[in-house]
Design goal:
- The protein is of the alpha+beta class.
- The protein has one domain (2-102).
- Helices cover 27% and strands 45% of the residues.
- The protein contains 2 helices and 5 strands; from the N terminus they run βαββββα.
- Strands 1, 2, 3, 4 and 5 form a 5-stranded mixed beta sheet that branches.
- The two termini are 19 Å apart.
- 30% of the residues are buried.
């Protein structure tokens, strides 16, 4: 199971700014629990950032998860663009994208 603990908001801010070429300001932190078929597939805190200088979005969602079999972490920085309009939808979209990439 993925978990969203172990990183600072500054690290997530840098991930948003680096991945999306904008400046980010932390707006809030939201607990998210994502389940699939009754099982928890991800639980942690998603940081919501106000972003400036991006042509298509004014918010981004960021979190981190451990990489299986490693002591490294993967950083996620997902833009607030339909269909992603909430922290939970950002997590869901990342999980779906990872599952597609794994196939």
């Amino acid at each position: 199971m993925m978990t969203g603990v172990g990183v600072t908001s500054d690290q997530l801010k840098r991930a948003v700014e680096t991945q999306h070429g904008c400046t980010a300001t932390l707006a809030q932190s939201v607990p998210v629990k994502e389940t699939f078929e009754g099982k928890t597939v991800w639980e942690g805190v998603v940081h919501v950032f106000s972003i400036h200088g991006h042509p298509k979005a004014n918010k981004a969602y960021a979190w981190s998860s451990p990489i299986e079999g490693s002591d490294k972490r993967r950083f996620f920085a997902v833009l607030h663009q339909p269909p992603v309009t909430s922290p939970a939808e950002a997590v869901r979209a990342a999980i779906v994208a990872e599952q597609r990439a794994a196939r």
